[in-house]
Design a protein that fits this description.
It is elongated, with a radius of gyration of 37 Å. The mean pLDDT is 78. 68% of the residues lie in helices and 3% in strands. It folds into two domains: 72 residues; 36 residues, no CATH class.
Amino acid sequence: MAETLFNLLAEKPDVSTDGYPINWLGIGEGLIYALLGFIVTFIGIVILIFFVWLYGKIIRGVRGKLAAKRAAPVDDSAKAVAADEEIPLETKLAIIAAISAYYEGEKADCGFKVKRIKRL
């Protein structure tokens, strides 16, 4: 077996009429090259599948940890801070009015246009 593999490396060039060497490949050598190609390709595909599977496992683990953090009960102090961070409606309206007044004073088209007002 080893002798056959070493014979694959031996060069037996013939020279064609234009001076370029020709390497002839026998049926056995062609079958061995094909078999090696199939094996290398199969191993490469298996490695790719493994990495995709591993990536999916990592993503599922991270998503599970994030879901567990979101599902964890929130203490009252965190609720109070979240309630304090909410901006009142009057403040939001004042900011919008100030921006509109600024752009109106510039006499430029600001791109903010009210097309419809809908009452809730």
